[in-house]
Design goal:
Layout: E1 2-7, H1 15-18, E2 27-28, E3 31-32, H2 33-43, E4 48-53, H3 57-70, E5 73-76, E6 83-86, E7 94-99, H4 106-112, H5 114-117, E8 122-126, E9 129-131, H6 135-145, E10 149-154, E11 162-166, E12 169-174, E13 184-185, E14 189-191, H7 209-216, E15 220-224, E16 229-231, H8 235-246
Parallel strand pairs: 1-4, 1-8, 4-7, 10-15
Antiparallel strand pairs: 2-3, 5-6, 8-14, 9-16, 10-13, 10-14, 11-12
Length: 257
Amino acid sequence: MKVAVLAGGKGTRLAEETEVRPKALVEIGGRPILWHIMRHYAHFGFEDFAIALGYKGELIKKYMLDYCSLSSNLTVNLGTGEVQRNGGYQPGWTVELVDTGNETMTGGRIKRLAPLVGDETFMLTWCDGVADIDLKTLLDFHRSHGRLATLTAVRPPARYGHLEFTGDRVVEFNEKPQTAEGWINGAFFVLEPGVFDYIDGDATQWEREPLERLASDGQLMAYRHHGFWQCMDTLREKHLLETAWQTGQAPWKLWDF
């Protein structure tokens, strides 16, 4: 099954990092967040990727071209130029890298991947969020309802400490609770190719008219994820993920190595 990843945005709210690299290559634990997301999908057996490129997309191409060499020990024959890779993690992923334009909106980027998806069910996510979602269960849920689209609904972490009072006395303090109510779109979609008919072109924003029309037509279902989910829109959120990784408390790390 194809996994589409949108990696073309400019990441302006993370400008400290994205002035020199696309958001997809901002690192957590010395690895691009794109790598973390792909490892998540690969953990559940989804290893066929189509990545929609835009802003500084050439750096993502270079990363993919260099990945095996940088992740392995190398034996180089300087006479013949032959390179032999030894050890290291060498995944059997197929990665298609597609230039979708610097100014193309999210819906337009998705539609440009249509020729790669064909007539098959496919998965879709952004390159700026990690979670511990069981992707097999998500796919089973999608197949059970027969609609065109499934999104993963999450309850986002609160940005500030949560206080409960009795009068003026604090009776409960929780630094980073999940909100007690309210669900948001956490991406991690499963989609049928019929969704392409809801996207007009490059100027279409997926989160607006296409999803609104799918919902209006009764074709959008929500898979409620009660576990960990965290986006990386700001430097603060990047530091939260980095701290989790460095302290061995990264819930999205479902793989063993």
